[in-house]
């Protein structure tokens, strides 16, 4: 079990933590196939071992290529779901994409994360790697302030009849589960095909299709609009400074819990970005266009083809990402 810090004070999306006990385990996540971050990983691991006798975990692919295997430990794929119970805090080395990767490692509770940039200052990496000893010591030895970054859950539903030898994923909204017979499941009820959790955004895009796409958007069961254009971005405040910003969306302070809708190259002047309350439940459905499909991309890395009859349900995740502040959430931003 980890020594997850106790909440000393919480105000909205700002939380001050204090350790119950001295941390014992740290997970270091580095930029993939990058020699500079590998060098800093080895240096940091040696210092953490010598100074604080911390158990240093890294991802399985990292330990294979590292020269400091005696200082590092890893975990199996079967053990990955236990990271949230074992790790006290996380260190990231790289760019903003490294933090997005960390988000994908933790499906539920996320330990506090301290993020170091290696020269290029990103929106999500406030700490300078040259000052890592002082920065990490401050986190280990005293209280620290975190920004609670809201994440989104996206379930992809299928209306198509599906036969499977395994029970389907139970829907996360109030949809009746299909009946289950021994050895086989056959259902025409909507079921969850796949589920994703994102820190930045869910993007629906027509891709290489030469025709514009039409996406019907409903909020809490009420129709908002039919969005015609190249696609639609559903972003968090954290994701407002990523792809959404490039498409004309506003920059949103990370402490504002909201859901941001940003049309991609809309064909109508009335299709403008919109901010929604964080308790909104969105349903996105591509209006029937024979032979066409769209692509759904999650945090710019994972992509799924959305077929005719499929639809997406997007809502706030119960598990935010906790990023440790260097100064405060506004100055860091």
From TrEMBL:
Gene Ontology MF annotations: ATP binding; NAD+ kinase activity
Pfam families listed in its UniProt record: NAD_kinase (PF01513), NAD_kinase_C (PF20143)
Keyword Plastid included in the entry's annotation: no
Keyword Cytoplasm: no
Gene3D superfamilies, alphabetized: Probable inorganic polyphosphate/atp-NAD kinase, domain 1 (3.40.50.10330), Probable inorganic polyphosphate/atp-NAD kinase, domain 2 (2.60.200.30)
Keywords annotated in UniProt: ATP-binding, Kinase, NAD, NADP, Nucleotide-binding, Transferase
Xref: InterPro entries: ATP-NAD_kinase_N (IPR017438), ATP-NAD_kinase_PpnK-typ_C (IPR017437), NAD/diacylglycerol_kinase_sf (IPR016064), NADK (IPR002504)
Family matches, as SUPFAM superfamilies: NAD kinase/diacylglycerol kinase-like
Protein family: Belongs to the NAD kinase family.
This protein's name: NAD(+) kinase
Protein source organism: Dictyostelium purpureum
């Amino acid at each position: 079990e980890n020594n997850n810090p106790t909440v000393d004070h919480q105000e909205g999306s700002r939380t001050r933590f204090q350790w119950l006990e001295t941390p014992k385990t740290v997970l270091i996540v580095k930029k993939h196939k990058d020699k500079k971050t590998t060098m800093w990983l080895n240096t940091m691991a040696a210092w953490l071992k010598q100074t604080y006798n911390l158990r240093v975990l890294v991802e399985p692919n990292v330990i294979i290529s590292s020269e400091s295997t005696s200082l590092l430990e890893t975990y199996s794929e079967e053990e990955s779901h236990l990271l949230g119970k074992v790790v006290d805090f996380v260190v990231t080395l790289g760019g903003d994409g490294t933090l997005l990767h960390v988000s994908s490692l933790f499906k539920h509770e996320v330990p506090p994360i301290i993020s170091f940039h290696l020269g290029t200052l990103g929106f999500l990496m406030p700490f300078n790697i040259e000052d890592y000893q002082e920065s990490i010591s401050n986190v280990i030895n005293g209280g620290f302030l975190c920004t609670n970054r809201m994440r989104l859950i996206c379930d992809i539903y299928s209306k198509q009849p599906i036969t499977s030898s395994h029970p389907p994923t139970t829907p996360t909204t109030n949809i009746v589960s299909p009946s289950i017979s021994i050895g086989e499941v056959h259902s025409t009820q909507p079921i969850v095909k796949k589920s994703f959790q994102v820190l930045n955004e869910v993007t629906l895009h027509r891709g290489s299709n030469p025709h514009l796409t039409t996406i019907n958007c409903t909020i809490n069961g009420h129709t908002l609009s039919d969005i015609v254009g190249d696609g639609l971005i559903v972003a968090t405040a954290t994701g407002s400074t990523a792809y959404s910003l490039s498409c004309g969306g506003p920059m949103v302070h990370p402490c504002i819990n909201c859901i941001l809708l940003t049309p991609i190259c809309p064909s109508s002047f009335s299709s403008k970005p919109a901010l929604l309350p964080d308790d909104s439940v969105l349903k996105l459905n591509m209006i029937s266009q024979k032979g066409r499909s769209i692509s759904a991309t999650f945090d710019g890395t994972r992509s799924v083809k959305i077929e005719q009859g499929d639809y997406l349900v997007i809502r706030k995740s119960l598990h935010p990402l906790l990023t440790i502040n260097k100064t405060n959430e506004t100055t860091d931003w």
